Amino acid sequence: MNNFTDLQSQPPLLEVNNLETAFEIDGEWHNAVDNVSFQVKPKQVIGVVGESGCGKSVMSLSIMKLLPKGIGKIRNGDIKFNGINLEKLNDKEMNKVRGKDIAMIFQEPMTSLNPVFTIGFQLSESLHNHFNISKKDARKKVIHLLDKVGISRPEKVVDEYPHQLSGGMRQRVMIAMAIACEPKLLIADEPTTALDVTVQAQILELLQELQTTNDMSIILITHDLGVVAESCHEVIVMYAGEVVEQTDVVTLFESPKHPYTQLLMQSIPRMDQEEEVLASIEGIVPSLKNMPRQGCKFVDRCPKAMDECRSITPQLRESSPGHGVKCLLYETSWEQEGMKAK
Amino acid sequence: MSNVVDIQHKEQSPPLPTNHETLLEVKDLKTYYPVKGGFFRRTVGHVKAVDGVSFTLKKGETLGLVGESGCGKSTAGRTILKLLKPTGGSIVFNGEDITKIRGGRLRERRKDFQMVFQDPYASLNPMQMVGDIVSEPIKNYYPRKKAKEIKQEVMELLNRVGLPDDAYYKYAHEFSGGQRQRIGIARALALKPKLIIADEPVSALDVSVQSQVLNLLNELQDDFNLTYLFIAHDLSVVKHMSDKIGIMYLGHIVEIADKKSIYEEPLHPYTQALISAVPEPNPKKKKERIVLEGDVPSPENPPSGCPFHTRCPVAVDKCSTIKPELKEVKPGRQVACILVD
């Protein structure tokens, strides 16, 4: 956290420019991720927040090039990792990047582990794929990895099957698998959602520790604002496939600007405050087929919506240095903004 | 129900004094599941899911039960509703001991306590129209009631929980998670119960929808004069909803107090760890975190003495031998820890 200012000057590790990912529904292509751009600097932790259905996971699958073949594709934009355009890589080349340079932790540790292979087998798989390593050495390395992620008696667990482990331990195994080849970028998709708070605290602490020791960057996808506040440097707020707000973590929590971000923050019960009635966002995220083609996509649920919001599509603009907001309220001049906000 | 062990103790507890204020009194409640094994599938041990839980709940109050998964909070809720047979202890509802009632009398009592389930996707019948789902309990208890009257009542209920009129003729799959949970709430309200046990009612929902359902539950509590037993693992949600909070660990309540004391001055080491583990949406606040080591021990083979001593950061030698009782340390505050007095 403290080296945040140093981060700014470094060249980005991952660069996503105008990413558009679409899915085919009934013969038509609909954008699930729409014109998303952001950068991840080395050693930076970026949080991606938003409700379910807002495109967070599709975005991470696009970066990993793991979109379901045939029904999902990247329509536009490019993804550069360390200066290499991932779009241009063929499957074989991409396989060398996946798991080695960019790794991913999935949400459900039970379904992401294969029930019929031992933990040791599944962990050593990526080691064998990426390095020329003997079986004996791989086993040693696996035990070391399990120990590193805080699993007690790793020499036993190595020969056990996923069902023999608890939820927290399985998630640790997933993390061990992801960091096996010491990736430079880790994409963690809701890594703690299925876990209890005490286990969540353990996992977050572990991720933070690994991030500093391995000099890793992390994209942390979550819907829990508490998790974001505690572990991220920068935050991207997504709604309906678009980035609606983007800034550093302190600014976001101190002065959220987009009405969606504001409501999201007011709708969570807080431990440190007492509130009678929670704010809520009426309705749900529009489905891909019913997405408004014009104007702001949040307009139907926005308490501050104006007539213009339906016709003019807002752009992501810097409202102050380093603070991007996609909302018409901040595109007008100061005075008008003050009037409209009232 | 049949798979719950029946080790009913012989002595009948004396009739308890009826307090007008108290709606539910649970004393030393135990629910054990048998573990079958061996050639003849004999019972070889017990999973002590709930092992001596006691609390009282006043009319109009909300008690939150919190704990990690596997701590027995859901089993406790189901046992109180008599969906599971208690292995021991007593449940007094509205002045009447319902621990052992069965058949017609239990059926009659069931009108007064209802449940809202966790998974709004699995707890609604996909083959039934929403109107039928909500009117089923009414038809069941008042078979002579006119169909028109029932429909009227159900319509009002659906409106009250914030669903449109045409919801009556729709099926559950046509609704979003939050709306389904509203259907579940309407069904629970259909018989005008006194007590509602809500078992993780919002854990499957998105934050924005979660707040809608929490607000609705709060409004309904005032309107219908309901008493809630609110079971959840999310401490900030429980804090928002409850007057009193009970913290559970391995089938035991380790601390119970009003919510203010629990959050401002947690006394039991487990409560302290649990509260410190909740990530707060405030990036400037760096709090001291007590990170617990390891996992919850198996309730089939719980540790001796204090159930928490294997993970407790302040445990002393005595903790592994002496089983602490839940005792009042300050007015209205009960803690089960030998180090707290």
Structure characterization notes:
- The complex is a heterodimer of chains A (342) and B (341).
- Chain A is of the alpha/beta class and 342 residues long.
- Among the domains of chain A are: 115-182, no CATH class; 256-341, no CATH class.
- Chain A is built from 14 helices and 12 strands.
- The model of chain A has no long low-confidence stretch (mean pLDDT 87).
- In chain B, strand 11 (327-330) and strand 12 form a beta hairpin.
- Residues 8-19 of chain B have low confidence and may be disordered.
- In chain B, helix 4 crosses helix 5 (177-189) and helix 5 (177-189) packs parallel to helix 6.
- Chain B has a domain at 1-9 and 18-112 and 194-208 and 225-280 and 287-296: Rossmann fold.
- By secondary structure, chain B is of the alpha/beta class.
- Chain A binds chain B through residues 51-52, 152, 166-169, 196-202, 204-205, 223-230, 249-250, 253, 263-265, 267-272, 275, 277-282, 284, and chain B through 68-69, 176, 178, 206-212, 214-215, 218, 233-237, 239-240, 263, 273-285, 289, 291-292, 294-295.
